[in-house]
Specification:
Pathway: Carbohydrate degradation
Shape: globular
CATH superfamily: Aldolase class I
Order of helices and strands: EHEHEHEHEEHEHEHH
Function: Catalyzes the reversible epimerization of D-ribulose 5-phosphate to D-xylulose 5-phosphate.
Strand order of the largest sheet: 1-8-7-6-5-4-3-2
Strand content: 15-25%
EC number: 5.1.3.1
Bound molecules: 5-O-phosphono-D-xylulose, cobalt (II) ion
Enzyme class: isomerase
Largest sheet: 8 strands, parallel
Number of domains: 1
Structural class: alpha/beta
Number of strands: 8
Helix content: 25-40%
CATH topology: TIM Barrel
Radius of gyration: 16 Å
Pfam families: Ribul_P_3_epim
CATH class: Alpha Beta
Length: about 220
C-alpha cells in the first residue's frame, strides 16, 4: 500500500487551506510541505508560521521537506509548528548524524533526502536511525519538472540495501511523479509518493488520487 503525499508547492497559496482540504478529503495520507530558503535552492516558499496555521485545521501527517541551509537550526521551529516527519537534505548537513538525532529527540520521524547526484553510499552509516529516505527524482527547487529516469536504479539500490540489512525505512520519491509513471517507482521500491502538479493542477482531484492508487497496485 502506498502513501500519497501531495506537495503544497503546487497549491494556490492564496487559497492554501481550501486546497489542502481538497487533498485531505480525497484520502491523501501525508501533506508534503516544501520549505525553500533561496540559498540551498533558488526558490523561496514558506516557514513554520504557515505550517502552524494549517495544523489547526488539517489532520494529515505533516511531512516537511526542508530544502534549506543549516536545517539543524530550524528543527525545533518545525516541530513546534506541528510537523510529524522532518526530512533534511544530506547535502545541507555538515553533521548529518547530529541533525537526525536532533529531529528524533522530539519524538517525531526523521528522514534524509538525496539530490539526484548524491549516492546512497552517503547515508549508509546513518540509515539505521532513519524512518524514511527521500530520493529526489528531479533537482530540488521547483514543482512541475520532468522525472529523471536514471533515478529508477537508485531507488532499486536503496530498496535492496534496506531489505538486505533488515531495516524498516520508507522510500519516498519526489519530483515529476504522475499517474502514468507511478507504477515504475513503486515497482522499484518506493512506498511514499510525492505528487505536486499532478494532483493540485488536476480538475478532478479525487479521480486523480484514485488513478495514482489503481496504477500503483502492481
Ligand atoms: O521538493 C520538490 C521540488 O523541489 C517537490 O516536492 C515538488 O514540489 C514536486 O512537484 P511535482 O514535480 O510533483 O510537480
Ligand atoms: Co518536496
Amino acid at each position: 500500500m502506498i502513501k500519497l503525499a501531495p506537495s503544497i508547492l503546487s497549491a494556490d497559496f492564496a487559497r492554501l487551506l481550501e486546497d489542502v482540504k481538497k487533498v485531505e478529503s480525497a484520502g491523501c495520507e501525508y501533506l508534503h510541505i516544501d520549505v525553500m530558503d533561496g540559498h540551498f535552492v533558488p526558490n523561496i516558499t514558506l516557514g513554520p508560521g504557515i505550517v502552524k496555521s494549517l495544523r489547526k485545521d488539517v489532520n494529515m501527517v505533516f511531512d516537511a521537506h526542508l530544502m534549506i541551509e543549516n536545517p539543524n537550526n530550524y528543527i525545533k521551529d518545525f516541530v513546534d509548528a506541528g510537523c510529524d516527519i522532518i526530512v533534511v537534505h544530506q547535502e545541507a548537513c555538515k553533521h548529518l548524524h547530529r541533525t537526525i538525532q536532533n529531529i528524533k529527540s522530539y519524538g517525531i520521524k526523521a528522514g534524509v533526502s538525496l539530490n539526484p547526484a548524491t549516492p546512497i553510499e552517503t547515508i549508509k552509516h546513518v540509515i539505521q536511525d532513519l524512518d524514511m529516505v527521500l530520493i529526489m527524482t528531479v533537482n530540488p527547487g521547483f514543482g512541475g519538472q520532468s522525472f529523471i529516469e536514471s533515478m529508477i536504479p537508485k531507488i532499486k539500490e536503496l530498496k535492496e540495501f534496506i531489505d538486505k540489512n533488515d531495516l524498516t525505512v520508507d522510500i519516498q520519491v519526489d519530483g515529476g511523479i504522475k499517474p502514468d509513471n507511478v507504477a515504475e517507482v513503486v515497482k522499484a521500491g518506493a512506498n511514499v509518493i510525492v505528487a505536486g502538479s499532478a494532483i493540485f493542477n488536476s480538475d478532478d482531484i479525487p479521480t486523480t488520487v484514485e488513478l495514482f492508487r489503481n496504477n500503483s497496485n502492481l
